[in-house]
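Supplementary Text 2. Reproducibility record for the structural model of the 616-residue chain.

All settings were left at their defaults, and a single model was retained for analysis rather than an ensemble. We include the record here because the model underlies the residue-level annotations in Supplementary Table 4.
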Amino acid sequence: EKPQPQSDGGDSHATKFHMDLEHWVTEVSEVFHYRIFFIELLGQMIHTIFGPLSIPVLLLLYGGKVGLENRAFWPFSLSALRGNIIWIFLMTGIVANFFSPAGIMLIEQKFAFFCLFMRNLPIATKYAYTSSQTWDSFNRKPIDAKYRAYMNMLVGWYMIPEENFVLQAEVAFVGVIGSHAQRSEVRVKFLPWPRNEKDLLAMRKRVDVSSKTMFFAPTGEVLRSKSCRRKAARQRIMGRDANLPECEMQSIYDGMSSLKNKSERSLGKIRTSFLGGKEQKLEVDATGPTGYSQEDDEKILFKTAANGGEVPIEDLFLYFLRAVQKSERAMCPPIAKLNLILVLPALLVPSFLRLKNTGFFLGPDPVAVLAVVGLWPSNFVFGALDMWRRRALMRSCAAMLSVQREFRRHCPAEVDMLPVLDFSDVKTIAGWRKLRQLCGEWGKFYHHRIRAFSAEFFAFLLIILADLMIGMLVPEYTELSGVNLASLLVAGLVSTALIVSILLLVYLGNEVNEAAERHRFILNRTRCLLIAMKHDDESRQNTGLACSKEQLEKSTDMMASLSDELESESKVMPLTLLGMPLGYSLLSFLNFIPIGVVSTLVNFCGNKDNVSRCTS
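Retained model, structure tokens:
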């Protein structure tokens, strides 16, 4: 029997990959576990309302003290301090409301009730998308605080820390490509950026576009790197750069890649450092295993690609992710501040109106003050940022196929520096396919949750608006529901925040869904060029295409199969919300919400009997 190749640690590659695969199966969940969802929703609601008083019930629900400590429910642990403070506020507000305090508006009580569910439903959804093994480990053994924090959407995904960045990338690598040995075999070859008129003529025959991009070669620098107007610096094509010959640049990159393989990452090592991992701690070295910094790695990758060299798919994907992160920091507002901006107005509108009408901001007596302040600690966030990242990754994949500005517009500046891939090479076509799959799989755990959150928040939006609409249309319910200026403003602000988040998801998701068709169009155009070259020996020689007709035939066959796959993907696996594909057709379906609410509001406030309700 043929022996397995040995790694530096003495373990075979197959054994190490088997261990990584076991950790991948444990880490990844592709289904929604309803049993876990209802158990967690019950536990979260009980703890939110009753706090430390719910410990006996939670011990039975989760099977012991360890499960409570991992969820920050154990009242004597430091991690439970924030939850205990929120519970004190909430319990104080609930108890104070039993005394019917003067000046308290019904909309404040409704808002607190809605936020109670809007806070706990996403938490239950988070656990429902973990694997059964991971959920069991939360009940049976101590989990590292970092791993628990990274499961939080705000801390783990909107502000991706380095450890979680590495973990999610490794999960995608193991799922899509496999072992480290397999990853080193998957490489893509670039066409060099033109440096003179001959190179430019050859590239124009290969790419078949009259794009201004082709006349300016990137320098490897980014202009306005911290501004939303960041872009790749370019210079007019003047001649070949003798300082970095192609053969020298490729040898430097190959040497760097071999050093990386000697200190390869391991999904098992990363995950063990979090799950019950008091024995090991994950240390992330900013300089990397080779002694190069991340910035040096990126510059060497750019120089290699610009000279028409080969790059491992693993390094190219990490280059994509780093580029998206840099663009995100420059272009997207901090999500925590944005969340605060959306929540505070809805929270304080009743108090400002109370101050205007009665002269009291919180209430006329201490009980009213406790009732108002106790219902404050509730908020929510939305997930358009995740969709923005997916759109940037899909744009980056398109940039590898074409130099045309239409297909490179708004992709990260670091990706815009790279030339197109050489699609006359079959291995490069297969590598691009894997690259696109990695872009879709990265952070899939969070992506599933965000789509579930969006559906839950949309359901809350319908409930809030339905309550408001019934209050305006049914006279008997108008007084009972407390329709007034405060309720109209609060419902309007909350609904606006939710509608904006849904509109952003639909707008960004529409381009992600259309990316398959865009990629397919560019692939078909490139395939036509290669077919023409296959039957034109003179053109093949003038473009420096050192491959036979048989190789071109294999490449065009592979591109045809890939094109068919993309066509099927856009139909079978679109991103959806409420079962409907994200796109402008969904927007037209949602138009009935604002139109119906606004027309009902105009009719309600236009009635002279209701004018006082709409103005005070």
